[in-house]
Automatic annotation (TrEMBL):
Species classification: Eukaryota, Metazoa, Ecdysozoa, Arthropoda, Hexapoda
Membrane-spanning ranges: 12-32, 44-68
Assigned keywords, A-Z: Copper, Electron transport, Magnesium, Membrane, Metal-binding, Mitochondrion, Mitochondrion inner membrane, Respiratory chain, Translocase, Transmembrane, Transmembrane helix, Transport
Domain Cytochrome oxidase subunit II transmembrane region profile: 1-72
Protein name (database record): Cytochrome c oxidase subunit 2
Entry membrane topology: Multi-pass membrane protein
Cofactor binding: number and manner: Binds a copper A center.
A Gene Ontology biological process term: ATP synthesis coupled electron transport
């Protein structure tokens, strides 16, 4: 994604500089050509050059699109289901490991909590591990979105959407439903807690025992 961004921005900068130079030269030069009414050669050039430029953008874009859809041997599968207005999580690789995740109300929020973003049950995932995410909904359209991970998956009733990602550092990653899903759409946040593998195994053992 970073490479594609840099690649596209380089092309955009080149186009901007070229067009800016041509416009400024037209403003400030005094040359005229009374006999130039049309030119097939110029029209061919300014039709073909943008087409070639678009190909240079489209090819890496399509490659990246297919790579993002490819799930490469995931170690853990996490299924999330959107409800009005909370998320439920199921760890498919473990027995009886599922829970609901509600936003913490303001009157119950601790002083170091995050207003409108913190939840009572965070989804814990191990870092440096390929994660497969299955997303669906139980009632209306939702969208499971975490900008810091570059993940946005629509949660559609009766449909199971899939994506994959890898978290390369520990920490908390916040997100929200980005599909207008009703009155309390703004109050169904997402929190992913990325931890070391040993810590994740201990958390799974504790949750399964409970």
């Amino acid at each position: 994604l970073t490479f594609f961004h840099d690649h596209t921005m380089l092309i955009v900068i080149m186009i901007t500089v070229l067009v800016g130079y041509m416009m400024s030269s037209l403003f400030f030069n005094t040359y005229t050509n009374r006999y130039l009414l049309e030119s097939q050669g110029i029209e061919v050039i300014w039709t073909i050059l943008p087409a070639i430029t678009l190909i240079f953008i489209a090819l890496p874009s399509l490659r990246l699109l297919y790579l993002l859809d490819e799930v490469s041997d995931p170690a853990i599968t996490l299924k999330t289901i959107g409800h009005q207005w909370y998320w439920s999580y199921e760890y498919s690789d473990f027995i009886n490991l599922e829970f609901d995740s509600y936003m913490i109300p303001l009157n119950e929020l601790e002083t170091d909590g995050f207003r409108l973003l913190d939840v009572d049950n965070r989804a814990v995932l191990p870092m440096n591990t390929q994660i497969r995410m299955l997303v669906s909904a139980a009632d209306v359209l939702h969208s499971w979105t975490i900008p810091a991970l570059g993940v946005k998956v629509d949660a559609t009733p009766g449909r199971l959407n899939q994506t994959s990602f890898l978290i390369n550092r520990p920490g908390l990653f916040f997100g929200q439903c980005s599909e207008i899903c009703g009155a309390n759409h703004s109050f169904m946040p997402i929190v992913i807690e990325s931890v070391k593998t040993k810590t994740f195994i201990k958390w799974v053992s504790a949750m399964s025992a409970a």
